[in-house]
């Protein structure tokens, strides 16, 4: 097995990487990018067909996904530690996906795929008086992707200096 060639010290890095990427969930799917499976292959067609998700024409075989992912890490990064360092520095190897219904590493009781990873929702509030733009307030809610990433609300207020109230 490839982890043997890297030594036992690399297991923690691989575990951290794939836990963050997919939660070791063979059905993990990032709807935004199309990254698929435990290693978050992009495109999914890089993996053997057995590794693909059922809607992609495969069986979501964890063994096939891991069997593809280990050599991928070795070829692209050299070691899981280097791949994990890249993930921490750049923020991707990939990030997020969908948690399928049912029980896996986590339990999803929604009955439908549930997004995991970082989510962001934004809304702009445009405040006007007599048709004149006074200010814009952008509210952005960001949900962290893991236990170490907290949710937060970002507020960006832009006041138009030329806006005047006519009284």
Radius of gyration: 21 Å
Overall pLDDT level: 74
Strand order of the largest sheet: 5-6-7
Oligomer: single chain
What structural category do the secondary elements indicate?
Answer: alpha+beta
- Give the % helix: 25-40%
Q: Largest beta sheet, briefly?
A: 3 strands, antiparallel
Shape: elongated
Q: Could you spell the SSE succession in H and E letters? A: HHHHEEEEEEE
Strand content: 15-25%
Through-space gap between termini: 77 Å
Number of domains: 2
- Number of helical segments? 4
**Count of DSSP strands:** 7
In the predicted model, the low-confidence regions spanning at least 5 consecutive residues are: 145-149, 163-167
What is the secondary structure topology, with strand pairs?
Blueprint: H1 2-6, H2 11-22, H3 62-76, H4 80-90, E1 97-99, E2 102-103, E3 107-108, E4 114-116, E5 119-129, E6 132-143, E7 152-159
Structure description:
The structure is a single chain. The protein has 167 residues and is an alpha+beta fold. The protein folds into 2 domains: 2-116, no CATH class; 119-159, no CATH class. Helices cover 26% and strands 25% of the residues. The chain has helices spanning 2-6, 11-22, 62-76, 80-90; strands at 97-99, 102-103, 107-108, 114-116, 119-129, 132-143, 152-159. The strands form 3 sheets. Strands 5-6-7 form a 3-stranded antiparallel sheet, with no helix packed on it. Strands 1-4 form a two-stranded antiparallel ribbon. A two-stranded antiparallel ribbon has the order 2-3. The longest helix is centred in the middle third of the chain and has 15 residues, at 62-76. The radius of gyration is 21 Å and the shape is elongated.
